[in-house]
């Protein structure tokens, strides 16, 4: 077994590998760029080596710097994680020349499966079911348009060297093929240094289901069940689960055996994933093989009890698999939510900045529930514009699917992140969505259910009552605390007031205290708008980020943040401003004029911090609704900004190459 390994990666996956290596008694070496000098993975590793400037192309994507770090530290092997150099055969070969072991498959398998065009040709020869498409070189947009017409719309345009949803476009018409072809090539070149793309038939209402495989150097191979990855946005996975709620035992076996056959055909030696798209009739088609560890591997680990990173290390060290196919049993259900630094209320645009508060839920086993959080950040860490926007992978396990989903919902409610925008509100809302809970999924789920983008979830009357109860309980403690301060001229509130008014956003609710005393822990009975009394119980203390307790017997975990004259309370994807007041204060508050936001309707604002790739218009130009105005790149994704209506460009405030902050004015309209 290896004594020391180097992790050629960063963030949560580097931390993940370090944990397993530590468990196995293996010393670890981290590498880091300028931006990651104070990163968590650098602190966790036994040693750390600086490898260059912040851009990945000048640090994490430099094989010679990784090899030099191995020589400097005496690392015997390299675990590449995912992304960066993990699927680059030349890197694997360069390591082998230096006598350093690559913890992953051999170059032959990486070349055969890592290139999407070549992998489909290989899979077809191996009699694996594939999607109809064009795998040859596509010369230009005219050629792409001709091919798409022959295949039949809709089609998928994909980067050959792609991954993570980058360099990928769906086209439903000729016009979309031309634009999608150019955008896919541009993204592919900037992200992977390879602008080749291919076109294949897009299966309508497909499910994305993948099979985890393990294979050693002694001819042994097996599959570890499947993962359902159909909840995607812009072809990037958001939520995954294992097993799939759609597959039956027969289909699972057929997909698994086909995945193993493909792995054996390329002499695969490591953990790998064979991805399929599955139609409504359970017909499945080979999509690609990822010759590396997958982001979503924890859900497989939770339902099988197998540490995939450990297996990768053991296989790379020449050991035989200690698991047989007949021993494989899937136990319970696991769900993974990817926490991204992005604003769900601005069409999921990237967000960067420092984590002023980062409090994930407690990990561990709690009765029948397991909570796991794979992360590479801590409070004070900076989310950089140079790398992928994923902050953490929150996972829950339970005996049943709905129990795992409910556990995820509560864990998300307990996950406090401040300093950046993030997608927890969306993930929380998703856990309540009937179609998700029923397992009626497709890769178009998000686009179909949120066609106009994700908007704040509005609470119903019962949920507003819960918010009002929490706000009242917090205000009672606040006032009681004030009354106990010494040296005051007179008590702030005096004896316990029984009647209150709670403003939830713009709605006023009357609250009466029926019974109970103000204390910690607290238990009081409240009547909302004259209704049946609700018992509110909690041991919350002022300053706690999470209000945990019960309202009318129902367990609640809500995030509370102080605001001027009130609170911001977030719960199950909903977020409200709450203000608990005495009735006379509420009367006066109703008379306050409403402050209106500034008018930005005649401006194009930069929706996220990013780099201006191109400006598509000139001053004085008339444009039509839907036409491209500018392209801004952030976190390796190109975002096309289009005109929302017919207009005339009056002034350009930015040019190609400019780095802009969020809400910077790119152009003004007449």
TrEMBL record:
Record flagged with keyword Lipid metabolism: yes
Pathway: Metabolic intermediate metabolism; propanoyl-CoA degradation; succinyl-CoA from propanoyl-CoA: step 1/3
SUPFAM superfamilies linked to this entry: Glutathione synthetase ATP-binding domain-like, PreATP-grasp domain, Rudiment single hybrid motif, Single hybrid motif
Alphabetical UniProt keywords: ATP-binding, Biotin, Ligase, Lipid degradation, Lipid metabolism, Magnesium, Manganese, Metal-binding, Nucleotide-binding
Domain Biotin carboxylation: 1-451
InterPro entries assigned: ATP-grasp (IPR011761), BC-like_N (IPR005481), Biotin_BS (IPR001882), Biotin_carboxylase_complex (IPR050856), Biotin_carboxylation_dom (IPR011764), Biotin_COase_C (IPR005482), Biotin_lipoyl (IPR000089), CPAse_ATP-bd (IPR005479)
Reaction(s) catalysed by this chain's protein: propanoyl-CoA + hydrogencarbonate + ATP = (S)-methylmalonyl-CoA + ADP + phosphate + H(+)
Domain Lipoyl-binding: 591-670
Pfam families the record matches: Biotin_carb_C (PF02785), Biotin_carb_N (PF00289), Biotin_lipoyl (PF00364), CPSase_L_D2 (PF02786), PCC_BT (PF18140)
The ATP-grasp domain, residue ranges: 120-317
Domain of life, per lineage: Bacteria
Enzyme Commission code(s) on record: 6.4.1.3
Cofactor(s) of this protein: biotin
UniProt cross-references to PANTHER family, sorted A to Z: CARBOXYLASE:PYRUVATE/ACETYL-COA/PROPIONYL-COA CARBOXYLASE (PTHR18866), METHYLCROTONOYL-COA CARBOXYLASE SUBUNIT ALPHA, MITOCHONDRIAL-RELATED (PTHR18866:SF33)
Protein name: propionyl-CoA carboxylase
Biological source species: Mesorhizobium captivum
Lineage: Bacteria, Pseudomonadati, Pseudomonadota, Alphaproteobacteria, Hyphomicrobiales
């Amino acid at each position: 077994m290896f004594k020391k390994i180097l992790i050629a990666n960063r963030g949560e996956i580097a931390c993940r590998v370090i944990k397993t290596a530590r468990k196995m008694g293996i010393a670890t070496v981290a590498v880091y760029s300028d931006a990651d000098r104070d990163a968590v993975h650098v602190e966790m590793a036994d040693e750390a080596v600086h490898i260059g400037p912040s851009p990945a192309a000048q640090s994490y994507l430099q094989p010679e710097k990784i090899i030099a770090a191995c020589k400097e530290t005496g690392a015997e092997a390299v675990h590449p994680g995912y992304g960066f150099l993990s699927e680059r055969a030349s890197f694997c070969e360069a390591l082998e020349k230096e006598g350093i072991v690559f913890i992953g498959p051999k170059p032959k398998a990486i070349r055969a499966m890592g290139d999407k065009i070549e992998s489909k040709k290989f899979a077809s020869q191996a009699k694996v079911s594939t999607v109809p498409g064009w795998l040859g070189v596509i010369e230009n947009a005219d050629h792409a348009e001709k091919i798409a017409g022959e295949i039949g719309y809709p089609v998928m345009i994909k980067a050959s060297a792609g991954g993570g949803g980058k360099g990928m476009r769906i086209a439903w018409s000729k016009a979309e093929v031309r634009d999608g072809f150019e955008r896919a090539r541009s993204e592919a070149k900037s992200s992977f240094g390879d602008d080749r793309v291919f076109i294949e038939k897009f299966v309508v209402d497909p499910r994305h289901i993948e099979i985890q495989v393990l294979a050693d150097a002694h001819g042994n191979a097996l599959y570890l069940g499947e993962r359902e990855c159909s909840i995607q946005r812009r072809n990037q996975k958001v939520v995954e689960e294992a097993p799939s709620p759609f597959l039956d035992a027969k289909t699972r076996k057929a997909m698994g055996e086909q995945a193993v056959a493909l792995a054996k055909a390329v002499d695969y030696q490591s953990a790998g994933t064979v991805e399929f798209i599955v139609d409504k009739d359970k017909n499945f088609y080979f999509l690609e093989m990822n010759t590396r560890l997958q982001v979503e591997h924890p859900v497989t680990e939770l339902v099988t009890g197998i540490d995939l990173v450990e297996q990768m290390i053991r296989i790379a060290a020449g050991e035989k698999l200690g698991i047989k196919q007949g021993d494989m049993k899937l136990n319970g259900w696991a769900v993974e939510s990817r926490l991204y630094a992005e604003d769900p209320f601005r069409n999921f645009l990237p967000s960067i900045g420092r984590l002023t508060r980062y409090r994930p839920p407690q990990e561990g086993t709690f009765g029948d529930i397991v909570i796991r959080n794979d992360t590479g950040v801590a409070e004070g860490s900076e989310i950089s514009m140079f790398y992928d926007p994923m902050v953490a992978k929150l996972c829950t396990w339970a005996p049943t699917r709905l129990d795992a989903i409910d556990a995820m919902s509560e864990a998300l409610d307990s996950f406090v992140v401040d300093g950046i925008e993030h997608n927890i509100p969306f993930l929380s809302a998703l856990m309540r969505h009937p179609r998700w809970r029923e397992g009626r999924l497709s890769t178009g789920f998000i686009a179909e259910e949120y066609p106009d983008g994700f908007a704040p979830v509005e609470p119903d009357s019962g949920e507003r009552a819960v918010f009002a109860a929490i706000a009242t309980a917090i205000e009672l403690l606040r006032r009681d605390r004030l009354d106990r301060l010494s040296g005051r001229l007179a008590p702030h509130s005096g004896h316990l007031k029984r009647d209150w008014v709670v403003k939830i956003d713009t709605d006023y609710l009357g609250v009466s205290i029926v019974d109970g005393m103000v204390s910690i822990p607290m238990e009081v009975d409240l009547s909302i708008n004259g209704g049946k009394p609700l018992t509110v119980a909690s041991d919350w203390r002022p300053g706690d980020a999470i209000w945990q307790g019960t309202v009318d017997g129902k367990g609640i975990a809500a995030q509370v943040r102080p605001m001027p004259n009130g609170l911001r309370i977030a719960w199950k994807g909903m977020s409200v401003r709450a203000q608990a007041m005495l009735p006379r204060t509420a009367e006066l508050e109703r008379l306050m004029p409403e402050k209106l936001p500034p008018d930005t309707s005649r401006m194009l604002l930069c929706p996220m911090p990013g780099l201006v790739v191109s400006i598509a218009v000139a001053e004085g130009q008339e444009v039509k609704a839907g036409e491209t105005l500018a392209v801004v790149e952030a976190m390796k994704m190109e975002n096309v900004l289009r005109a929302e209506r017919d207009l005339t460009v009056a002034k350009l405030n930015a040019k190609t190459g400019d780095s802009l902050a969020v809400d910077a004015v790119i152009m003004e309209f007449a």
